[in-house]
Amino acid sequence: MSKNVVIAGAVILVLVVLGWYFTQPKVTVPPVPESVTQTPTASSEASKSAKIVSITAGGYDPKDITIKMGDTITFENTDTANHTVNSDPHPTHTLYPVLNIGRIAAGEKKSVMFDVVGKFTFHDHLNPSLTGSVTVQ
Fold this sequence. Notes:
This protein is α+β, with helices and mostly antiparallel strands. The protein is about 15% helix and about 35% strand. This is EfeO-type cupredoxin-like domain-containing protein.
């Protein structure tokens, strides 16, 4: 008899948990794009331009770059290892959070548009000695 009570209790518990699960409101999180890519229109190409920064085993190339506000930089990992692009200071990455584009796998590209004037330094979180800077005019 006690075996039947345990089984009945287990069944009731499962039904209660399932009932609770299916009555909870569904929370949907909008997808976050892995990278932001901007395609300039013909009329904006003269004022806005895309720059490429290669990431190699030796660091960022060019290490320091100057652009205009509204320009886009594409970080391209040409190395065989994963790298990251993160805003300084290490390890908090708080200087310019838009620059925290994270991991870039070998052969992958990620782009970011700079809409604030200033000098923004960055580093590879996986290898903090690899550093660079973007000066936005």
